[in-house]
Automatic annotation (TrEMBL):
Subcellular localization(s) per the UniProt record: Membrane
Topology class, membrane: Multi-pass membrane protein
Cellular component terms per the entry's GO annotation: membrane
Family, per entry: Belongs to the copper transporter (Ctr) (TC 1.A.56) family. SLC31A subfamily.
Example of a GO MF term: copper ion transmembrane transporter activity
Keywords of this entry: Copper, Copper transport, Ion transport, Membrane, Transmembrane, Transmembrane helix, Transport
Pfam families: Ctr (PF04145)
The protein, known as: Copper transport protein
Keyword Cell membrane: no
């Protein structure tokens, strides 16, 4: 019988550190976008909205198939 090597996720694993790094980048970029929007410069605000729309169009077309067991809608 073959032995399956299962690794338990730990707080100091490389994957968790990488996900933490990506989370920090996401928060910093979100704050920068918020500050750009708070300048009330119409062209910069339009650029942020247009960038979000283009990004969603290019990368948001494939939805993840995660089923929420708490969702009761049919």
């Amino acid at each position: 019988m073959s032995r399956i090597n299962l690794c338990r996720p730990t707080m100091m694993s490389w994957m968790h550190l990488f996900q933490t790094f990506l989370h920090i980048i996401q928060i910093v970029l979100s704050y920068f976008l918020m500050l750009i929007f708070m300048t009330y410069n119409v062209w910069l605000c339009c650029a942020v909205v247009l960038g979000a729309a283009v990004g969603y169009f290019l990368f948001g077309w494939k939805k993840s198939v995660i089923v929420d067991v708490t969702e009761h809608c049919h």
